[in-house]
Write a structure and sequence with these properties.
Elements lengths: L9 E2 L5 E2 L2 E4 L5 H10 L4 E4 L3 H10 L2 E2 L3 H4 L5 E4 L4 H8 L17 E4 L5 H13 L3 E4 L2 E2 L1 H7 L2 E6 L2 H14 E8 L3 H29 L4 H9 L6 H5 L22 H17 L5 H17 L18
Parallel strand pairs: 3-4, 3-6, 4-5, 6-7, 7-8, 10-11
Antiparallel strand pairs: 1-2, 9-10
Helix pairs in contact: 1-2, 1-6, 8-11, 8-12, 11-12
């Protein structure tokens, strides 16, 4: 059974107490997030299936664990960044729902899950954590790998006021914008609402630019016109999907880097799952999900702005 968390914390140069942190999941997002915590003076123990990923963090000063339970043996805070809901379930609840990490954590432990998963999955884990006296936050992020490296992510957090207050200074090391969206599960709902709208905007922007180009307009001139008109949106401002219209974006680099189409497909599917679970009509979201599902078959690893190739396949070559 869980016991009170009384293990020692570490202190920085100003003698401010910092909790020991376990970080589980060191992918393209998790690894730089963990590195930023190390740079800020947090004692970190990490776990990932990838030996290369754990070696990277070990070289940066982290202790490497053989499994999630070992990683959390001396931690007051657990942060996870995992691929999907099934992985979050497996880590925290266990394969049969009774032998997961939650049963090993002391009461009062703060768990921050930054994976993007279905709101229902987050709520299930949060409910189990609450029954054990563990503070659980769903805290998905926006900002991509660039934001993870720069420590400028946006965190969208669901959970209690008390847990959010405990987490905020830690999240501030990894992000610039930190929103408390509401109770448990609210972070995931807000994240998928945002990404559903983003998918709709990108698909629509690509469609509009294609219409203009096929009718003789220069894509940059058309983009500039729309930027100063009522069609203005984030994709036109900072992430134009047409090649060579804007510098330093994936569309001008063969659609490499950025946010992969298969991840946009995943988030759109999560939005559709939530809409179905709560009987909400989302016809435009459904169409965007349909478009990205087809697009990701051959272009899943390309940036999501590569949906432009649906209209002009030559931009993908």
């Amino acid at each position: 059974m869980s016991t009170e968390n009384t293990s020692a914390t570490n202190k920085d140069d100003n003698n401010a107490t910092k909790p020991n942190i376990a970080f589980i999941g060191l992918g393209n997002m998790g690894a730089p997030m963990a590195e930023n915590l190390l740079k800020a003076g947090y004692a970190l123990c990490v776990y990932d299936l990838s030996e290369a990923a754990t070696q990277r963090l070990q070289q940066a000063g982290a202790r490497v664990a053989d499994n999630p339970k070992d990683a959390t043996s001396d931690a007051q805070v657990v942060i996870s960044m995992l691929p999907a809901g099934k992985h979050v379930h497996a880590v925290y609840l266990g394969e049969n729902g009774s032998n997961g990490l939650l049963t090993e954590l002391p009461k009062g432990t703060l768990v921050i899950d930054s994976s993007t998963i279905a709101a229902a999955d987050a709520t299930t884990v949060a409910d189990a954590a609450t029954k054990l006296g563990i503070d659980f936050l769903d805290a998905p992020v926006s900002g991509g790998t660039g934001g993870a490296i720069a420590g400028s992510l946006t965190f969208i957090v669901g959970g209690s006021d008390a847990a959010f207050a405990k987490a905020e200074p830690i999240l501030a090391v990894m992000g610039k914008n930190i929103f408390h969206a509401g109770d448990q599960g609210a972070g995931q709902v807000a994240k998928i609402c945002n990404n559903m709208l983003l998918g709709i905007l990108m698909a629509g922007t690509a469609e509009a630019i294609n219409l203009g180009v096929k009718n003789g307009l220069d894509p940059k001139v058309l983009s500039d016109i729309m930027l100063q008109s009522s069609g203005r949106n984030w994709t036109l401002e900072v992430y134009n999907p047409y090649p060579q219209v804007m510098e330093n974006v994936p569309s001008s680099n063969g659609y490499q880097g950025g946010f992969m189409s298969k991840l946009m497909q995943k988030d759109l599917n999560l939005a559709m799952q939530t809409a179905q679970d709560t009987n909400v009509d989302t016809p435009m979201g459904a169409k965007a999900a349909e478009l990205y599902e087809a697009h990701a078959v051959e272009n899943g690893d390309k940036d999501f702005s590569s949906i432009m190739g649906r209209h002009d396949s030559s931009v993908l070559s």
